[in-house]
Specification:
alpha/beta, binds (2S)-piperidine-2-carboxylic acid, binds nicotinamide-adenine-dinucleotide, 306 residues, 7-stranded mixed sheet, 36% helix, hormone binding, single chain
Length: 306
């Protein structure tokens, strides 16, 4: 075996800038929805009942991008002093199958997920958004503020968290124009963009609190029996997903509400499905291996690993 290069989270953080990541993710979402060059089975998940978590295996091959990669990601929602998600990524030579690099996957997961929501928001938001509301104040809340701020300038950012101190801490970190809210209804009132990034298993966001025409990035609740969004809201919104197949297998928000999936976001980027900007839109994100593969490829290219 050639020498396997190990890439630390510090290196990934340095290299993976949203200015290069967001366009790369946009291209990969479109490529995925073409159904021709990307082979990506739905995540294989091993449940760990004792910790109410799981270990997910996410392999992908992309002919177009010359990517053969796999992410293994763990989710331990009860972790207290360490992160709840951990991941590693392996990149192989797409022609020989030789492993080339092992990358820290934590930063890749945080940044590529937020970059994906940024792309969805770019296509689905109704006009120029002024108010951003975040439900959740963890890793993804932070990466979403950074990625969305790359594309939009918000006049106001509001944060709600089920533990109020988490919302206060993040609001202080963000600083100017950012407020912590005690109620979800207060946080999302008149918000143009809402991001749900909680570990909730039951809905935290309700239809009657949401401004008609708002865009929601629904990022949590990645199990078929978990949901973050109230069923009435899911059914009344125009629902976009990253992968139709993944959403129908993994998303409680979709399965439990029986909401109709209008399109994959890749279809909108390709121009084969409409961006219904004036309607209330939900982008249900489950996370795809192609997003990880593209992000990892950006990193190894920059490091000269070919
Ligand atoms: N779609 C994707 O691609 C993708 C990728 C990574 C993570 N996620 C999901 O996004 C969510 C946030 O991930 P993270 O890395 O920020 O995790 P995190 O642990 O850093 O943050 C989780 C947040 O949820 C809050 N929370 C915990 N239990 C809750 C409950 N019962 N009700 C309401 N809030 C609760 C926590 O206080 C915290 O603010 C998780 O559901 C995670 O699985 C999705
Ligand atoms: O796509 C991912 O990487 C994540 C991991 C954990 C939960 C949901 N999706």
């Amino acid at each position: 075996m050639d020498t396997l290069v190990i890439v630390s989270s510090e290196k990934v953080t340095d290299i993976l800038d949203y200015t290069i990541l967001i366009p790369a993710i946009e291209k990969s979402l479109a490529e995925f929805s073409k159904r021709t060059g990307v082979i990506q089975p739905v995540r294989n998940v091993v449940l760990i009942p004792e910790s109410e978590g799981f270990l997910g295996c996410m392999p992908v091959y992309s002919r177009e991008d010359d990517i053969l990669a796999a992410k293994i990601v763990s989710f331990f929602p009860q972790n207290k002093d360490v992160s709840t998600h951990h991941a590693v990524m392996l990149i192989f030579c797409a022609h020989t199958g030789i492993p080339k690099a092992l990358l820290d996957g934590d930063v890749i997961t945080a940044k590529r997920t937020a970059a994906t929501s940024a792309v969805a928001t770019k296509y689905l938001v109704n006009g120029k958004p002024d108010v951003l509301a975040l439900l959740g104040s963890g890793v993804q809340a932070r990466s979403h503020v950074a990625a969305l701020s790359e594309l939009f300038t918000f006049k106001e950012i509001r944060i709600w968290n089920h533990r109020f101190d988490g919302a206060v801490k993040l609001a202080e970190e963000i600083g100017l124009n950012c407020a912590s809210c005690r109620d979800v209804s207060e946080a999302v009132k008149n918000a143009d963009v809402i991001v749900t990034v909680t570990s909730a298993k039951n809905p935290v966001l309700r239809l009657d609190w949401v401004k008609p025409g708002a865009h929601i990035n629904a990022v949590g609740a990645c199990r078929p029996d978990w949901s973050e969004i109230d069923a009435d809201l899911m059914r009344s919104a125009v629902v976009y997903v990253d992968s139709r197949e993944g959403a129908l297998k993994e998303s409680g928000d979709i399965i439990l509400s029986q909401a109709e999936i209008y399109a994959e976001i890749g279809d909108v980027i390709l121009g084969t499905r409409e961006a219904m900007r004036e309607k209330t839109t939900v982008f249900k994100s489950l996370g795809m291996a192609i997003e990880d593969g593209v992000a990892a490829k950006l990193v190894i290219k920059k490091l000269g690993i070919e």
